[in-house]
Amino acid sequence: MRAVCTVCEKVHYENPKMVVGCLVEHNSKVLLCKRKIQPSYGLWTLPAGFMEVGESAAEGAARETFEEACADVEVISPFAQLDIPLIGQSYIIFRAKLKNPHFAPGPESLECALFGFDEIPFDSLAFSSVLVTLQMYIEDVRAGKLRSHYCTITKKPGASPSDTMGFIMSNHLCV
Question: Which letter, b or e, does each residue of 141-166 get, where b requires 16 or more Cβ atoms within 10 Å of its Cβ?
Answer without folding.
Answer: eeeeebeebebbbbbeeebeeeebee
